[in-house]
Specification:
Length: about 80
């Protein structure tokens, strides 16, 4: 299964990526800054703004599942 994890660099996102890889899925990690993300082996990394509709449309193409681990800020 192709799995996209949005917010993969965060604490929860890292756990989700690790579990998806361990389960044998093909994982794409979506992060804001790839320089600050140490991807596990065989994980594809996409960098961008998760609030940008075009970026997210491109990132979700071909995925069987999308897991969003981004936590919004409260006012």
């Amino acid at each position: 299964m192709n799995v996209l994890v949005i917010g993969a660099a965060g604490k929860t996102g890292r756990q989700v990526v690790d579990q998806a890889v361990a389960a044998g899925h093909s994982v794409t990690a979506f992060v804001r800054d790839s320089a600050q993300y140490n991807a596990p082996p065989n994980v594809r990394v996409l960098t961008g703004d998760a609030t940008d509709q075009t970026t997210m449309s491109d990132a979700t193409a071909g995925q069987d599942a999308v897991i969003d681990t981004v936590v919004g800020k409260t006012p």
